[in-house]
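User: Can you write out an input/output pair for a complex, sequences first and structure second?

Assistant: Here is one pair. Inputs:
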Amino acid sequence: MMQLLSDESYMRFALELASSAQGQTSINPVVGCVLVKDGRMIGMGAHLRRGEAHAEVNALLMAGDEAEGSTAYVTLEPCSHYGKTPPCSKRLIEKGVKRVVIAAQDPNPLVAGTGIRLLREAGIQVDVGVLQEEATVMNEVFNKFIVTGMPWVTLKLASTLDGHIASRTGDSKWITSEASREYVHMLRHQHQGIMAGADTVLADDPQLSTRLSVPALQPVRIIVDGALRVPPSARAL
Amino acid sequence: MMQLLSDESYMRFALELASSAQGQTSINPVVGCVLVKDGRMIGMGAHLRRGEAHAEVNALLMAGDEAEGSTAYVTLEPCSHYGKTPPCSKRLIEKGVKRVVIAAQDPNPLVAGTGIRLLREAGIQVDVGVLQEEATVMNEVFNKFIVTGMPWVTLKLASTLDGHIASRTGDSKWITSEASREYVHMLRHQHQGIMAGADTVLADDPQLSTRLSVPALQPVRIIVDGALRVPPSARAL
């Protein structure tokens, strides 16, 4: 059955917009924004690349003058600081948005709530927490980094039921399936780096690249090789 | 499991963009567009209102100068004529898009294929038919209108298992459920007009309005009343 129009349905769509940019925003979070006025969507946007327009700005661009009096659904608290782009809270205020619905607060404890406060001080109705869990899980990589300064690490390990990663002969192709290999390539597309030890590179000569049916993002290749054993002919180099 | 990057996954996202505008484009079709370059989404858009920018134009607006050399995924064949806005085929050519993937051809037999031909004549690679069925079903209302000139009519009839629409006493509230009533309100949001006969208006005094948890679109109220029996006090007036 079709989804009923509601704060949640609009936020779910904003989450889809955000999700579509998963992996391509570098150390920035993925964010989606939908602008609605008088029962009609007037703008939509996502943050597509670090240093480029935030989701709110892209949605406002599409809405143009219609933005005045609209409701903005944003998956992450609008920023309040001058970074690579001017603060989105200010932009929403300037454009006359009258209500802002937010899924998740800024995960950075030092700034969480400041964007919301700015909006409220400007007389905008702000509602926080619609689909908060989905929005938080979506940015688990960013959230860990912004709070701890540490990178999110995904371990890919193919192992047999009894805990081995290769047969006695060293032959390890393939104990995984077609589906898991495709999944790994999507993970690569969504990660900034891919790391392997020298032993793995020497044994498997992996390409450490993302291979899908259409061009994808290529993570930085990192080889941990304390003794420079990997030859220049390695396919990853 | 996460969706693999592919022509289909991008088209599926473009279909979601289109679907989000269901009901608000008047006699125009709903259309979504995604622009991709080097494994990265650089623009997205939908057609939001008749007379305003088409999906391709909104996506190109978000992409800016990056559009050159990109691939465009469009749920409907880009238009080739000057209507309320300039033709999108021309715009895609001007912006240097190098490949266009289309879900469904223009349903109007008189113009189907002309947008595709324009693009191909400009040296653009055009692939047609990715998720064609989904794209066609999505615009069944528009497709019927543009081919036959007739409106799409949805009949809402609440009836008992034995074929009655009210009890012997004329009491008909409620033989439907909460879920079906909410569904009907979404249908109203997505239709341009809502029609009832004078007997229904006299018996039920319906509001003929869309009532959801957030503001929705209100269809034009049409009452078929050959003898002007409906009083000015009727709630629908």
